[in-house]
Amino acid sequence: MRCFTVLGPSQTGKSTVVEKLGSLEGAPRKSSSPYGLNLTEFTFGNEAWCALDAPGPNEALAHAQHALLASDACILCVSSAPEEAVLAAPYLRVIEASETPCILFVNRMDEPRGRLRDVIAALQDYANHTLLLRQIPIREGDRIIGSCDLISERAWRYREGQTSALIAIPESAAEREHEARSALLEHLSEFDDWLLEELIEDREPPSDALYAISSRVLRENRIIPVLIGAASHGNGMMRLMKALRHEAPPVGVLRQRLARAGSVDENKLTAVSFHAYHRQNVGKTVLVRALGEGLRQGASLGGSSLGAVQNLANGRSSSAVVPASGDVFATVKSDHLPVPSLLTSDAVVAPPEWTEPPTPMLERILVPGSERDENKLSETLAKLSETDRGLTVLQEESTGAQLVCAQGPVHLRDLCRTLSDVFHIHVTDRTPSPIYRETIAKPSEVHYRHRKQTGGAGQFADVKLSIRPNERGRGFTFSETVKGGVVPRNYIPAVEAGAREAMEKGPLGFQVIDVGVTLYDGQYHAVDSSEHAFRTASKMGVRQALSEGSAVLMQPVFRSEIHIPSIYSGSLVQIVSALKGQVLGFDRDETAKGWDIFRALIPGSALDDLARALRSATQGIGYFSKTFDHFEELYGKEADAIVRAREEPGVAH
């Protein structure tokens, strides 16, 4: 079986392309994953094929990445509008990082919204590989009625729902065809000395030789050929499928590529797991592509026995099914197989680094609808994070509630639906509270005496403490300068412990940071003094000093790295400024052509707004990662509102 992924932005007709390709020589067999990955098995040219139709939203990019891990080649569907080329940038980035041979298909040419050369030029801004036209459109007025193949120099007229008809190259297209063919041959000659010599000698190379060269350079992932068509009308589908059949590499090349990327012995690499999901009353289903022979139910894979092998189309298990090299199959009761991963018979190998999904930007607390759901939620989220690498599951620092980090609102909605439909856990979501702190603005001194007589041994401790603001980021410090044994040495650790306890909640209601405490004098009683007494005296004394130290609210500030196509960089200064952030600068992204990395300091309370503004400004393409940087003072009405909210019952920070 040969396998390819069809991917690209939403509304580019990916599913229609897969449907038409699968129907060229018979009826396809289709299966679907709850995550939106559709698998279509079909036969073409007496060969078995499997098309992986990746979901289109950028929030599901992780599933497209994992599909590439199991693919011999891919088809990138793009719009015929030059201004929409940027929407393909995330996919070009992933395709090039994965080293997957790619055919770029400009779909919907029946409704062109710009010149093809402008579409290719706009896409080239995001591709390191040369985008090489293999066809040009034939126009009749404003309509595109066919295409001309630049290698065979044959022209084809589209026919609705039928195979295109061979026609002579129209005179109106002859000059453009000659120009485009010359560019094609010039680029191909960069990878073939014989062709270069033929061109220098002004000899016309035969079509068979050119097809062989173009096939080789695609298999070697040297270029990205560009084909055109309109899948909804069946136009260009046969040419696209023939290009896949003759030019896409066999499964052995994928095995070599994955072995090299994962530093695995190629002879031991048996399979690759690339997708998983949970089904009601079934459990975890894992999709696997065999890269070698000998796999069947009970065989050793990933260090344990392979579970039941299922038919993709009907979900039926059979111990008689023996996947051949290249076959895609589903397996249940194989929970030991992580996704994605490279698999030998006795080991699981981590996938290549390029399979890492974008950093999740949307953080939400999931609130279960009942106590029964609360007990199940943590375990269930852990299961789901194993099958969806775009999801991160944490706990809220202040409450311990389940905190999920999703790719965006669509991803979050799908997660909640899966919890409800598959696991019968009903949840609502809320925005997590930023982690505020407080400190003091001025030093103070306090003399605190703790004395208590309750029958029997009493309690006595007397401490004199100096409290001062520390420099930012230094945290809590404790020192002592007592002399003459006024506070015995064995009680000083208790004084420090009491001071630390006082830092847990300051006068504003938040944890206190960046404060130094010094014990400089005190008294003790030979009978009634104890560690508990000095701990209590220190705690109460520090609390009193904090209330006199002009408490200041502190907000968290995060260092953010924003990844965006370069055309959007100019809008980020205004976005960051509106969020009261600080621009640190930006650089070209050395790992992705046409992308910038924009650095800024953003208040923690504004991260949710940053995610929304970024999605809006970049059509959902941009994303950011964050790391905590420091706390800084917050004053005025905003600080007052936060403190008032902290005092309300049920509000956690």
Automatic annotation (TrEMBL):
<dbReference type="GO" id="GO:0005525">
    <property type="term" value="F:GTP binding"/>
</dbReference>
<dbReference type="Pfam" id="PF00679">
    <property type="entry name" value="EFG_C"/>
</dbReference>
<keyword id="KW-0251">Elongation factor</keyword>
<dbReference type="Pfam" id="PF14492">
    <property type="entry name" value="EFG_III"/>
</dbReference>
<dbReference type="GO" id="GO:0032790">
    <property type="term" value="P:ribosome disassembly"/>
</dbReference>
<protein>
    <recommendedName>
        <fullName>Elongation factor G</fullName>
    </recommendedName>
</protein>
<keyword id="KW-0342">GTP-binding</keyword>
<dbReference type="InterPro" id="IPR041095">
    <property type="entry name" value="EFG_II"/>
</dbReference>
<dbReference type="InterPro" id="IPR000795">
    <property type="entry name" value="T_Tr_GTP-bd_dom"/>
</dbReference>
<dbReference type="Pfam" id="PF00009">
    <property type="entry name" value="GTP_EFTU"/>
</dbReference>
<keyword id="KW-0547">Nucleotide-binding</keyword>
<dbReference type="InterPro" id="IPR035647">
    <property type="entry name" value="EFG_III/V"/>
</dbReference>
<feature type="domain" description="Translation elongation factor EFG/EF2">
    <location>
        <begin position="433"/>
        <end position="550"/>
    </location>
</feature>
<dbReference type="InterPro" id="IPR000640">
    <property type="entry name" value="EFG_V-like"/>
</dbReference>
<dbReference type="InterPro" id="IPR005517">
    <property type="entry name" value="Transl_elong_EFG/EF2_IV"/>
</dbReference>
<feature type="domain" description="Elongation factor EFG">
    <location>
        <begin position="552"/>
        <end position="642"/>
    </location>
</feature>
<dbReference type="GO" id="GO:0003924">
    <property type="term" value="F:GTPase activity"/>
</dbReference>
<dbReference type="InterPro" id="IPR035649">
    <property type="entry name" value="EFG_V"/>
</dbReference>
<comment type="function">
    <text>Catalyzes the GTP-dependent ribosomal translocation step during translation elongation. During this step, the ribosome changes from the pre-translocational (PRE) to the post-translocational (POST) state as the newly formed A-site-bound peptidyl-tRNA and P-site-bound deacylated tRNA move to the P and E sites, respectively. Catalyzes the coordinated movement of the two tRNA molecules, the mRNA and conformational changes in the ribosome.</text>
</comment>
<dbReference type="GO" id="GO:0097216">
    <property type="term" value="F:guanosine tetraphosphate binding"/>
</dbReference>
<dbReference type="InterPro" id="IPR027417">
    <property type="entry name" value="P-loop_NTPase"/>
</dbReference>
<dbReference type="GO" id="GO:0003746">
    <property type="term" value="F:translation elongation factor activity"/>
</dbReference>
<dbReference type="InterPro" id="IPR047872">
    <property type="entry name" value="EFG_IV"/>
</dbReference>
<dbReference type="InterPro" id="IPR014721">
    <property type="entry name" value="Ribsml_uS5_D2-typ_fold_subgr"/>
</dbReference>
<dbReference type="InterPro" id="IPR020568">
    <property type="entry name" value="Ribosomal_Su5_D2-typ_SF"/>
</dbReference>
<dbReference type="Pfam" id="PF03764">
    <property type="entry name" value="EFG_IV"/>
</dbReference>
<keyword id="KW-0648">Protein biosynthesis</keyword>
